[in-house]
């Protein structure tokens, strides 16, 4: 299947430039899930066939997710979301190395890693939050210097949700392996946007979530390398081979499997069609709006994400104006949108801003066209100019 454009369930009533926050459920995904709400709603753990036959649907979805990331099916289990996957991976690594009390992560991780690490600090763990440079890049030398004999786990993301900046996952993993340290990678924003191939990759745990790739919210997965230790985070029944208690959400898992298959098929189209549209919008904004600056590395970045600072423009006011014009974007992570604080990602990259909130994150998907992107450019330019004229 070669998907260069996504067909949406309904025409969008808005210009949606917030795919890193969430994505629309694709019609094929919705269709694949439907029977599991209406006809095939049994419990896969039941002994009778009306339930037990659903195990086949779970295994098909598992192999579809495994195929997307180049894993074996036995290395993938389903979770409720990537927040759970991230917590579960770090938890498993710490349980496997009970004498080690040091964790390494970065200052720009998603809150599901950062806040868990901060909670672990209160339990007596020592956490190193690695810095990034002003382009959002991680320096391997900083990681190397932070590793000690007491380090149990390194948790670093593949692609940043606010800037799209990519971390050198393979080099990080190789360094961790050479020091006998477990490595967890939050690949939520990378999966479906760049090739993620775990075969031969020195990664022990890798998290992903459905709602960033055309599946519904509320379903995620964790890859656990066959040689990596694992102990459950959620204790309960024997579901997921005892790795994750709780009756499986069959419909959503089927949705994630279908979305994974579609994402694999559209990976090259994503790069081919989304990157030029993102570049056109970004160049338009940077060239035509005075005092605009890119947050993030120019090239070492996802094809769909652009984060731009407009000097003197309050991002909340800008987002409100854009909303009135039917344009959806954000100033950072959706999970922290209600926080009065500046983005921790931008602050880590540009501490001299001292908490100023003037950044706009736009993140595109496959449904965009040159027409929707020039309309977005017009709306953003007029909104910034309008605010500056006040
Ligand atoms: N990690 C990253 C990088 C994310 O962008 C997100 C979602 O915004 C998550 C983790 C959490 O995913 P979920 O909403 O499935 O818990």
Topology:
Blueprint: E1 15-16, H1 27-33, H2 35-38, H3 49-52, H4 54-69, E2 76-79, H5 82-96, E3 102-106, H6 111-122, E4 126-130, H7 140-146, E5 151-157, H8 169-178, E6 182-186, E7 205-209, E8 220-224, H9 250-288, E9 292-294, E10 305-310, H10 315-324, E11 327-328, H11 344-349, E12 359-363, H12 370-388
Parallel strand pairs: 1-11, 3-4, 3-5, 5-6, 6-7
Antiparallel strand pairs: 2-8, 7-8, 9-10, 10-12
Helix pairs in contact: 1-9, 4-9, 5-6, 9-12, 10-12
Bound molecules: pyridoxal-5'-phosphate.
What does this structure look like?
The chain is α/β, with parallel strands linked by helices and 390 residues long. Helix content is 38%, strand content 14%. The protein has twelve helices and twelve strands. It has a seven-stranded mixed β-sheet, with helices on both faces. Strands 9-10-12 form a three-stranded antiparallel β-sheet. A two-stranded parallel ribbon has the order 1-11. α6 (111-122) links the parallel β3 (102-106) and β4 (126-130). α4 (54-69) runs parallel beside α9 (250-288) and α9 packs across α12 (370-388). The model has no long low-confidence stretch (mean pLDDT 95). The structure holds pyridoxal-5'-phosphate. Pyridoxal-5'-phosphate is lined by residues 81-83, 110, 112, 157, 161, 186, 188-189, 209, 220, 333, 335.
């Amino acid at each position: 299947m070669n998907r260069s454009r996504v067909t949406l369930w309904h025409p969008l009533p808005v210009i949606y430039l917030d795919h890193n926050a969430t994505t629309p459920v694709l019609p094929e995904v919705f269709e694949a899930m439907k029977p599991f709400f209406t006809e095939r709603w049994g419990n896969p753990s039941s002994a009778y066939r009306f339930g037990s036959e659903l195990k086949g649907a779970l295994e098909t979805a598992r192999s579809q997710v495994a195929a997307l990331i180049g894993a074996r099916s036995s290395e993938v289990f389903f979770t409720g979301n990537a927040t759970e996957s991230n917590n579960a991976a770090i938890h498993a690594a710490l349980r496997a190395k009970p004498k080690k009390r040091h964790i390494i992560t970065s200052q720009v991780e998603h809150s599901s890693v950062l806040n868990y690490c901060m909670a672990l600090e209160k339990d007596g763990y020592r956490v190193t939050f690695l810095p990034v440079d002003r382009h959002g890049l991680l320096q391997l030398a900083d990681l190397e210097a932070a590793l000690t004999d007491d380090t149990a786990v390194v948790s670093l993301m593949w692609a940043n949700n606010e800037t799209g900046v990519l971390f050198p996952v393979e080099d990080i993993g190789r360094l961790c392996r050479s020091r006998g340290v477990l490595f967890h990678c939050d690949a939520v924003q990378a999966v479906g946007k760049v090739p993620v191939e775990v075969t031969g990759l020195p990664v022990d745990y890798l998290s992903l979530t459905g709602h960033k790739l055309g599946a519904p919210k509320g379903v995620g997965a964790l890859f656990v390398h066959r040689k990596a230790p694992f102990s459950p985070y959620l204790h309960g029944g024997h579901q997921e081979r005892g790795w994750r208690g709780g009756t499986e959400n069959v419909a959503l898992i089927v949705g994630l499997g279908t979305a994974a298959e579609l994402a694999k098929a559209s990976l090259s189209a994503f790069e081919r069609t989304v990157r030029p549209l993102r570049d056109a919008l970004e160049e338009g904004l940077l060239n035509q709006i005075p005092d605009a600056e890119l947050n993030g590395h120019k090239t070492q970045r996802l094809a769909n994400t652009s984060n731009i600072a407009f000097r003197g423009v309050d991002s909340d006011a800008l987002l409100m104006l854009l909303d009135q014009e039917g344009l959806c974007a954000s100033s950072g992570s959706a999970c922290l949108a209600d926080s009065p604080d500046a983005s921790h990602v931008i602050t880590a990259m540009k501490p001299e801003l001292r908490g100023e909130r003037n950044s706009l994150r736009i993140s595109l998907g496959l449904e965009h066209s040159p027409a929707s992107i020039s309309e977005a450019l017009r709306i953003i330019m007029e909104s910034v100019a309008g605010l500056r004229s006040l």
